[in-house]
Write a structure and sequence with these properties.
Blueprint: E1 6-7, H1 15-24, E2 29-30, H2 31-41, E3 46-47, H3 50-62, E4 66-72, E5 78-84, H4 86-111
Parallel strand pairs: 1-3
Antiparallel strand pairs: 2-5, 4-5
Helix pairs in contact: 1-3, 1-4
Length: 113
C-alpha cells in the first residue's frame, strides 16, 4: 500500500495531544525525541514540526497533563524533557477511549453502502 506522509495539519483535532501523551508513557523525552519517535513508529507517516509540537507540549503542561524540566540531553545540550503526570495518564485513558469510539464510528460510515 502506497502511503503519503501526513502532516500535522492532517491530524484530527486533539490527536497530537493523544499521541504525545502516549509517547511519554514510555519515558521522559525532549521535543525532538518525541518527534523522532512518532516519525519512526509510524514508518515516516506522521511528521510533526516544531511549530505544532511545541505549542502542543506547552498545552499539555498548562493543563497539568505533563510536566517539564531542563536536563542535559544525550548530545550534552540543554533540553526540556517532558514527563506525563498522573492526571495526564487519566486524561490519556479517557482520550484513548474517545478516539477508539470515533474511529469505530468513522469505519461504520466508510463501510456503509
Amino acid at each position: 500500500m502506497d502511503r503519503a506522509p501526513i502532516s500535522q495539519s492532517g491530524l484530527l483535532p486533539r490527536t497530537l495531544d493523544l499521541l504525545v501523551l502516549k509517547t511519554l508513557t514510555r519515558a521522559p523525552l525532549h521535543g525532538y525525541g518525541i518527534a523522532q519517535y512518532l516519525l519512526r513508529t509510524t514508518s515516516s507517516f506522521l511528521s510533526v514540526g516544531e511549530g505544532t509540537l511545541y505549542p502542543a507540549l506547552q498545552r499539555l503542561v498548562v493543563n497539568g497533563w505533563a510536566q517539564a524540566e531542563w536536563r542535559q540531553s544525550e548530545t550534552g545540550r540543554r533540553a526540556r524533557y517532558y514527563t506525563i503526570t498522573p492526571v495526564g495518564r487519566k486524561h490519556l485513558r479517557t482520550q484513548e477511549r474517545e478516539f477508539e469510539q470515533m474511529v469505530d464510528a468513522i469505519r461504520l460510515v466508510l463501510r456503509a453502502v
